[in-house]
Amino acid sequence: MSNLPQSVSKLLNISESSDYKDDSILQTIKKLIGITEEYTPFDMNIIIHINTAFMILNQLGVGPKDGFYIRDETTTWNEYDAGLVNIGTIKTYVYLRVRSLFDPPSSSIINEIINKQILELEYRLNVSAESKNS
User: Could you tell me the pTM of the whole model?
Assistant: First the structure.
């Protein structure tokens, strides 16, 4: 189905058989940026960046109308989902936002590529949200 490595596909829950609803938002993003579940010194920093991404998504018209935030590792994607079909894209967006804020690449070229991906995802998610609202 996808050309991504199986581990990345599993984390992003883009396989047809995956059930993302019980996955912790914090733990998913930590895994994607390369931090183990047990390593917690940066959890608050990552939570702040995750919440920033959710605030931006809300301003784009994506997700719960009243906004959304997490407090700890107990918040799951199911709590954010509310029937969204773009959950894989949303996970990718949150990951890229958090990575660019928490651990920006030292290479300006890679940083530019990530920023372009973020902009494209924002555009696509916004178009999708607007088409559902019209």
Answer: 0.83
